[in-house]
Design brief:
Two copies of one chain form a homodimer. By secondary structure, the first copy, chain A, is an alpha/beta fold. Chain A is built from 21 helices and ten strands.
Chain lengths: 501, 501
């Protein structure tokens, strides 16, 4: 089964670097088109321990539009999960139509592990695989696009990989225990893959020894699957509405409004020294150092059952997304979730404005990173007048109380405002309009927000002054140099964790 | 504090019977108006053990429109709840705008109990009460209508009440333990009530010795609070739109379409003997007997960590709601939830059609009663062509597999189709149009559905034949006589539980 994945395939750095920009831009473009489609895209990532599943998840989150992706890592079941039928936890995690769900671990993990350790008989194993097939077919029948990636490692490669992880303090508790059963694990996995390789939800086995090869291959498989489905969907649409011409999903080029001179920012922000910079060299060195420290600290927090709640706010184009990725790269995917906050759903709209944040709070020992947050109440809702002065006026106290409850419970709460100058924002907006795979990032709304810079600056000022508490401090990040900003954020989190743990 | 609630107030049966119909009709009318309002109504029910809190919840569910009420009983926290800040579980349970949330037990229970048992110092207790006040004020500031009912029992009354509950097998494990601390419990509760009695969320102490008095009083308090708020809301609306006249929330009388002769039902349904009846006397006796047995069995199921999943489907006006109430009357409110299925929310619409049912599955030992269910896929969605023949065609298998998973996990799954004749339906429709507090129950859609009786009968036939499995059987209920139907349902559940436990 896995012989074809032990051929020693690699990709040189040169070929990788040449291929990735195009792959990325195509992936983003396809992802952009998915948004308007009525089907969810489920990517199951499984495979050998140490095969780079977590790293691949990081990479995919980097390549895709993070606002349209949810990543779920399945680990030990909670008591609420154990008290319901086994698939309850998977149903909780399915992506909605128009979104991508990356599942790290899945309905495959439990049957395979139990079968490997002889806790499940062959007949029951077959029944479990039948159930999986039925489940996947059912989702596919309702339109879900499902692909399953199996990352395979030859035995020697797995051993050296686990050693390396161990040195970096990033090994999971069961990894060595599983390694001793390499042959049995391979055999059972092979059975599972053969049994569940269907047209509705095909398996793709990827040789995982070489990082560049496995990432590029995974990216291509995902792109091909999505592109093929989008073509089908377009064709169906064209057929349905034969009178109206079929549209390409690619967005029309955006108009370029005349730039304006903007007033300088409010008083707190005026103290941020935006001239701070890092050289490429210093950046590489410090990034690696901080990420290594963070990786260990995050496991330490897990062992002590301490959770982090990190909030990222900032100007449009200030680099929130890429800064968050530098943080999550250092974290085991099982230990965090990134929650992107956009417009509320109707269920959320029917509740108190804080309700939608409560529902995403992390379990003990894991962390939630909010890409935008409850501060929307005193930023966009204030400036755009979605909230009355009375509403946003009392929100400061409500927010401080909310964060107090988190801190009281032992959560480590930290908030970042990514600050840039209006001039730097303009430069980045223009760049986004010209770089192919960045176009999706800039909208008319960004330009409109920009015109309200002074209003936002005043709101940021109030927010920082009124909600900067010892238990949930604000850090103003000097963001004109992205490298400096990323390292500043990492250092702040590392320091906070070292003080707390 | 509680002296005014020890006056020995009672209400004679005659006065109760005279007052209730009007109260009920006013409550329903007010509840109906709430639907179109943008505020949630939170009713907290607390008080002494054995004071009839559970009974009151039953009564309110009977008096209000069950589709607009969610009842939450807070019991031991799950590990997922313990791993988050304490209020997470309450946020999960807040009603949406336009809905009523009845909270049995609440944010008050834990501080009071811990303080009573000296597990919390006075200063921490005060801080906990401050937090409560802030929380309630915050919800109220966003529009929530909050009232809190405290059911008080004098010591002697509590003792005799607990004895009675014990005889009926309906006593909760901690009740006697708490009784020994009656004086301390009363003192601490008094402190809590004084501390948290605010304009935003006022307390109402109700003398609870006499069932009729406490229910009538609670009903009046709820009605007054809701009516006053609705008036305010109407006045605000009228002021806002001074040009358009303020509308009374009462629905306009419905048109009476011409009745039609309908074909008899499909083949399976044709075998239901609709002539079966019960005399008033036999009904009273059998209802009580079956409810008593059910009450004990439900506690038995809880001890064995077995859950029931009950499904109620049936013709419009077949009496689903009142039949469900006869079942839930026998169940401790902590042990079940009724989930009414109406149109999906947008979050639900963005998922596979089974997703919205998975999310409501009960924890081990507790039960979920679905008032309409996943069978909508093969009933209304089939008949109204919301689902394609291919979709509803494969749904039978999907549903059987879903129920199989529930049964495999140990859930006791049972499904009821409430059957009536077309003639009986017509009679009930007409009655609903004339009885004041039943008018809200009949809509144009009911008349439209009625015209499609033969289509629905065919769909019911297919559904019963294809999804009647040993692990999740269908029971066809003879519903022309409501008394017979209710007892038939209770007997079936009792028998099923006795066989299973």
């Amino acid at each position: 089964m896995f012989k074809n994945a032990e051929l020693g395939r690699t990709l040189t750095e040169a070929r990788y670097d040449a291929a990735i920009p195009k792959l990325r831009s195509s992936l983003l473009n396809a992802h952009f088109q998915l948004r308007n489609q009525k089907f969810p895209f489920i990517i199951v990532i499984s495979g050998a321990d140490g095969a780079g599943k977590g790293e691949l998840v990081h990479r995919l989150n980097e390549w895709l539009d993070p606002r349209g992706v949810s990543t779920f890592a399945f680990w030990d079941a909670s008591d609420e999960e154990r008290e319901r039928p086994a698939y309850w936890r998977f149903w909780r995690s399915l992506p909605a139509r128009g979104r991508i769900g990356i599942l790290l671990g899945s309905w495959y993990t439990d049957p395979i592990i139990r079968r490997v350790f002889h806790k499940m008989k062959g007949r029951k194993f077959d029944a479990a695989l039948d159930r999986i097939t039925a489940f996947e077919k059912m989702l596919a029948a309702e339109g879900a696009l499902i692909i399953k990636l199996w990352l395979h490692l030859p035995k020697a490669a797995q051993k050296s990989r686990l050693r390396k992880l161990e040195r970096e303090g990033r090994i999971a508790p069961d990894d060595w225990k599983h390694f001793k059963l390499y042959e049995r694990f391979t055999k059972i996995s092979g059975q599972a893959l053969r049994h569940t390789d269907t047209l509705a939800a095909p398996w793709h086995i990827i040789e995982a020894t070489d990082r560049r090869y496995r990432e590029h291959t995974a990216g291509r498989i995902i792109l091909n699957a999505l592109t093929a489905r989008l073509k089908l969907a377009d064709a169906a649409k064209a057929k349905a509405a034969a009178t109206t011409p079929s549209k390409s999903g690619k967005p029309a080029p955006l108009p370029v409004p005349k730039p304006r001179t903007l007033k300088p920012a409010g008083s707190v922000l005026a103290h941020v020294n935006l001239k701070q910079k890092l050289t490429e060299e210093a950046y590489d060195q410090q990034l690696e150092e901080q990420q290594t420290r963070l990786a260990k600290l995050v496991w330490g927090a897990y062992e002590k059952k301490r959770s982090m709640v990190l909030v990222f706010e900032g100007w449009d184009a200030a680099g929130k997304g890429s800064a968050i990725r530098r943080v999550t790269q250092a974290m085991d995917p099982r230990l965090y979730r990134v929650v992107g906050i956009a417009a509320p759903t109707d269920e959320e709209r029917a509740q108190h404005y804080l309700w939608r944040f409560w529902r995403h709070l992390p379990r003990a020992g894991t962390s939630t990173i909010f890409d935008r947050s409850w501060y929307g109440r005193v930023l966009v809702e204030r400036v755009e007048k979605f909230a009355t002065p009375e509403q946003w006026g009392r929100a400061y106290e409500e927010i401080v109380d909310f964060e107090h409850q988190l801190a009281d419970h032992g959560n480590i709460v930290h908030k970042f405002w990514l600050h840039i100058s209006p001039e730097e924002q303009l430069r980045r907006f223009k760049e986004r309009q010209t770089v192919d795979y960045k176009q999706y990032k800039i909208t008319d709304e960004d330009w409109r927000n920009r015109e309200k810079w002074p209003d936002y600056a005043r709101a940021v000022d109030d927010m920082v002054v009124r909600c900067n508490t010892p238990f949930a401090p604000w850090t103003l990040v000097a963001g004109n140099d992205k490298k400096f900003a990323r390292v500043q954020i990492l250092k702040t989190i590392v320091q906070r964790l070292e003080e707390t743990l």
